[in-house]
Amino acid sequence: MATDSSLPSDLTPERPSSQPHEASVIDASLRTPLTVLISSALIWLLAASVLGIIAAWKLHTPGFLDTCEFMTYGRIQPAQSNAFIYGWGFNAAFAVSLWLMARLSRGMLPGSGVLLLGAAFWNVGVTLGVGGIILGFSTSIEWLEMPGFAAPLLLVAYALIGAWSLVVYRSGRSSEIYASQWYLFAALFAFPWIYSVAQVLLVFAPVRGTVQSIVHVWFTSNLFLLWFASVALAAVYYFLPKLLLKPVSNYYLASLAFWWLVVFGSWAGLSRLLGGPVPAWVQTVGAAASFMMIVPLVVIGMNVFGTLSGHWSALKGSLTLRFIVFGAVAFALWLLALIAGATQGFASLTQFTYFTAAEGQLGLYGFFSMVVFGALYYIVPRVLNSDWASVPLAGVHFVASALGVILLVGSLALGGLTQGALLADAKVPFAGITQASLPYLFSANVGLLVLAIGQIAFALNFFWTLARASAPSVRSVKVLLAAQPEVSR
Amino acid sequence: MSADQNNNLSAGQSGASDESLQQVHAELVAKKPEPKEGFKTMPLFLLGFVSTMIFVTSVYVVHYRAGFSPTVYDQRFDPKTAAGTGAKELTPEQVIAAGKKSYQQVCAACHQNTGLGVAGVYPPLAGSEQVLGKEEALIRILLHGLNGPIVVKGNTYNGAMPAFGKVPGGGYNWNEEKISQVLTYIRQEWGNSAPVVTKEKVKEILAAEKARSKPWTDAELKPFE
């Protein structure tokens, strides 16, 4: 766009890294913790994938593995969602947010001992939790299925990990707080709040009656919006201008979107209860807050697609951008589905059908995971100071992920609409509805398999790159600091 | 796939530096009120848009607030219209309970909680032929009051019963429902067992005696007994 050139100053590229400089010192200081976090994230991602395929297979072939107590749907399905959310999602979000915070604050990580301890605690906590679910100790509250003993461990681990984002921010030399950092701070402080409130009110001292479902829906929607979506939006606001060498268009509106999302977003989830057994005013307030999501939808759309307009060809050149733009489109669709779902007519069709599952996958996989994949393609080579081992594997990952998400979300959404229409028809017997949704469930399962191919390609690529980077020729932090002592302070 | 096509896969590839990202952020934030050409209409559009959203959702919330009541589960509930159409009939037990409440607040001062009254002044209600007799007279006594001597169960009482209905000179202005409740109560308490008094009957008699503005006497009531 012509207006871009008149903006105050254009972004200047990072200097080529022939000489060690600030950014590479920061990256090097993050190498060990990020390697640990990303490796654990990937292992959990693959584990969740295996569990997810088993669970999904049971939906259309109920006899599959039904003789084993630990493999029943009621245990495998929550184990899958917890492994995905707390194993993959959190580890990956920790890695990306820590790196973004360090880079934007221009502060290096002073030491990684406590951070590594936190990462270990977190993964032990998730292992105990997922193991507990498979052994039958599930609390049966969606996204909080992990037995009560895992929760305190997770909170302690979170504190040990999250504190370092503040440390790098405080020690950094940038006095500005960029849009990405707003979202990172929001996520950082929101998670302990929503998680501890939900644990206390639902697991340790359960509230009674309909308040339970209100607290629960508040927790799940905020965990997505204030944690996962915030971290992913931080990455979007960072990589878009960085890779396009162009400021975010309409940047001054970004703060409006941020506050709007934080203030109204935390209420929006209540619209999930539309038509449910909760007082009418709760549903009304939830629906109103969901309608308000139109504002961040428009503003973030203007930020993202305004910046991209005229630069679409850049997508061909950058894998990170492709992942991130895919994620941004998915987020827009997710918000649209949320807004549509808050209207009585649409909700009466989609409520309590596979459409809800489609929305969940669109948000967690289509948006959060895709953006994080994109970010990792940029972060990993810098942190390891080594190129990706295989370019074709990265290509396979993108194609498989994009196809898989479209297949998975598309078939669940269509299946949900069909299911909703049939449920509303009193003449159709219930068994007939189950029968009619089978083809959709099967194609969703194919989507999961395609996604798994992408995940395997990504994991292979990462561990291969890690192995190559561990070669002694790679520069370590000490060497970098020795070469340029003044940046370390 | 050439290396060029995936140039961000290498460690050496450069995006914008973080320093310049922050610098541009600072400049854009500082110049916020002065948007560049082509963006001029945007703040106006957005202001209108945001205001519209706030307005529309406020109307929505007010319309479907359902009285912010924790016991209302239907968004279309409106206490105003619901009070007229959906007012529930009280169960016989609730009618008696409501009547008892009114009785104890007011009537018991003279007729006593035991319903036995005070000798010579306030006649008893328990076993009284006026209470157990035709409701025509009983309703009239409560609506307009009663002055002068009256014979109940063989004893004469001389007191003043005030008017309880919405009548000229009436100090209590009880509505038909309340009167029917208290009468039903005294007709079924202390071993009494006369039929209930409906508020429709009370309304009917109130209409029939619209012209009356003073309390009844025992003699005047004779035709109704």
Overall CATH architecture of the largest domain in chain A: Up-down Bundle
Biggest sheet strand order of chain B reads 1-2
Low-confidence stretches of chain A: 1-9, 484-489
Shape of chain B: rod-shaped
Derived structural class of chain B: mainly alpha
CATH-defined topology of the largest domain in chain B? Cytochrome Bc1 Complex, Chain D, domain 2
Tell me the fraction of residues in β-strands of chain A, as a range: under 5%
> What do we call the CATH homologous superfamily of the largest domain in chain B?
Cytochrome c-like domain
- CATH topology type of the largest domain in chain A: Cytochrome C Oxidase, Chain A
The CATH architecture name of the largest domain in chain B reads: Orthogonal Bundle
Q: State the major sheet of chain A.
A: none
Tell me the name of the CATH class of the largest domain in chain B.
Answer: Mainly Alpha
Strand content of chain B: 5-15%
Biggest protein-protein contact in the assembly: A-B, 73 and 57 residues
Total helical segments of chain B: 9
> What value does the Rg of chain B take, in angstroms?
38 Å
Could you characterize what this model shows?
The complex is a heterodimer of chains A (489) and B (225). With 489 residues, chain A is mostly helical. Chain A has two domains: 24-176, no CATH class; 231-474, Cytochrome c oxidase-like, subunit I domain (Cytochrome C Oxidase, Chain A, Up-down Bundle). Chain A is 74% helix and 0% strand. Chain A has helices at 22-29, 31-60, 73-105, 113-134, 150-171, 179-204, 210-244, 254-268, 280-292, 294-308, 314-317, 319-341, 344-350, 354-384, 391-423, 430-469, 477-483. In chain A, α8 (254-268) packs antiparallel against α9 (280-292), α10 runs antiparallel to α12 and α12 (319-341) packs antiparallel against α14 (354-384). Chain B has 225 residues and is mostly helical. Chain B has two domains: 18-85, no CATH class; 92-224, Cytochrome c-like domain (Cytochrome Bc1 Complex, Chain D, domain 2, Orthogonal Bundle). In chain B, 46% of the residues lie in helices and 6% in strands. Chain B has nine helices and two strands; from the N terminus they run ααααααββααα. Chain B has helices at residues 18-30, 41-63, 79-85, 92-111, 129-132, 135-144, 176-188, 199-208, 218-221, and strands at 146-152, 155-161. Chain B has a two-stranded antiparallel sheet. Mean pLDDT of chain B is 78; it is low at 1-7 and 33-38. Classes of the chains: A mainly alpha (489), B mainly alpha (225). At the A-B interface, α7, α9, α10, α12 and α14 of A face α1 and α2 of B.
